[in-house]
Design brief:
The protein is an alpha/beta fold. Helices cover about 30% and strands about 25% of the residues. The chain has a single domain (about 25-170), classed as 3-Layer(aba) Sandwich (Rossmann fold), CATH 3.40.50.150.
Length: about 180
């Protein structure tokens, strides 16, 4: 019975997150508030008007991957989790190492992927989140979907090369398991 329920949840998530479905998923507010309190973000690099967390944000048309924000920029990024994810992680690493930008990313905890070993593990602070996140499509009142994967926060700090480390992120106030 439990396996059938898990399979149903996974099918629902896959249907909701299929390539034909929207890639617009709202970051959980409690998670963002806790991170913003620590980093005081100035830019949301992967957003649109319905889910932007900062006054300055970049949507698909303004293409944050092609921007250089420069020293002092504190970038929040919950990127699309599809095939372009590696490009986002690489961009964050380069932004930190070459341009002095701080990047804080919410990512799926896919530790077996090439991008994790190439960019995150050696060059970033990796914080594994206990429990699974609930994402909503679009606005605050939208129905929430529990991710079928674990998540992590990856922080690329300015000009730090080869200083990666891992820790477990405590649960956040208001975070639901």
């Amino acid at each position: 019975m439990m396996a059938a329920a898990a399979a149903t949840r996974s099918i629902r998530w896959k249907a909701a997150t299929s390539p034909s479905a929207s890639e617009v998923w709202r970051t959980p507010d409690a998670l963002y508030r806790a991170l913003d309190q620590e980093f005081d973000f100035t830019i949301d690099a992967a957003a649109d008007e319905s889910n932007a967390k900062c006054d300055e944000f970049f949507d698909r048309e303004s293409d944050a991957l092609a921007q250089t924000f420069g020293p002092g920029a504190r970038v929040f990024c919950n990127p699309p989790y599809g095939r372009v994810l590696e490009l986002w992680v690489k961009r964050a690493m380069i932004g930190a190492q070459e341009h002095g930008e701080l990047w804080c990313m919410v990512l799926p905890a896919r530790t077996g992927n090439r991008w994790f070993h190439r960019y995150c593990l050696p060059h970033a602070e990796v914080r594994f989140i206990q429990g699974r996140l609930n994402f909503a499509k679009g606005n605050v009142t939208a129905k929430r979907f529990r991710a079928p994967f674990d998540s992590m926060v990856v922080v690329f700090r300015p000009y730090r090369i080869g200083e990666g480390h891992i820790r477990t992120q405590p649960t956040f106030p208001g975070f639901e398991r």
